[in-house]
Specification:
Blueprint: E1 12-16, H1 20-30, E2 34-39, E3 51-54, H2 59-69, E4 73-76, H3 81-93, E5 97-100, E6 116-120, E7 123-127, H4 134-147, H5 151-166, H6 172-183, H7 186-191, H8 196-214
Parallel strand pairs: 1-2, 1-4, 2-3, 4-5
Antiparallel strand pairs: 6-7
Helix pairs in contact: 2-3, 5-6, 6-8
Length: 215
């Protein structure tokens, strides 16, 4: 299984199942996509900005919903394995991605795994255990959140530095090494909390020391 990032902006995600799992999936995808959740009842959970449709679709009903919404992704999160299998088949028939919430361990070919995610725009980090250990996924996600709390700010800072260094007489190798030095500098990471101006000054100082060491 190869991890990929997929932009679901302006796409539809169709979720079958209104239990806790369906609610969690709906919240996740509603941050970016248009989400429709179809279920005969809904758990007392937050579904984000998803549209909730109270209906208990049978096999034909599931296929009708897939055809009607033209989803980019179908999430099968009911407590009925046969209904989940129908949703999976219907998704594949129209070329949509599919995520089966009841498919643990060995994943079927083409099944999308939704990883535990840490987001600090523009940085996204994700970890998955193939369904074997959700507890480990959660632990690693929390560890990443603590260790890389300012990853988004570091990405923006180094993006600015790369552009600025383009106009200097530094060689491509020197520019690459300078940015790598900034990313690895504890001083710069600590300065990120103080705002962009200070972190840029510290980064410039770190690069200056690095250039002095190599000259």
């Amino acid at each position: 299984m190869i991890p990929l990032l997929h932009d679901l902006t302006d796409e539809t995600v169709l979720v079958f199942g209104g239990g806790p799992v369906g609610a969690r999936k709906a919240r996740r995808f509603a941050a970016e996509a248009d989400v429709v959740v179809v279920s005969p009842e809904f758990a007392d959970r937050e579904f984000g900005a998803a549209e909730l449709v109270r209906e208990a679709p049978d096999t034909d009903g599931i296929r009708a919903w897939v055809e009607r919404t033209d989803p980019a992704l179908v999430v099968a999160a009911t407590d009925d394995a046969d209904l989940n299998a129908t949703a999976e088949a219907a998704a594949r028939e129209v070329g949509a991605l599919v995520n089966r919430a009841d498919d643990h361990g060995e994943q079927d070919m083409g099944n999308v795994v939704v990883p535990a995610t840490v987001r600090d725009d523009p940085v996204v980090m994700a970890v998955a255990t193939g369904g074997h250990s959700p507890a480990l996924s959660k632990y690693l996600r929390e560890s990443f959140e603590a260790q890389f709390a300012d990853a988004g700010s570091m990405a923006e800072l180094t993006s600015d530095l790369r552009e600025e260094l383009q106009s200097t007489d530094m060689s491509p190798t020197e520019r690459r090494d300078a940015v790598r030095t900034v990313v690895r500098s504890e001083r710069v990471w600590k300065a990120l909390d103080s705002g962009r101006p200070k972190s840029k000054r510290v980064a410039a100082d770190v690069i200056g020391h690095q250039m002095g060491d190599t000259s």
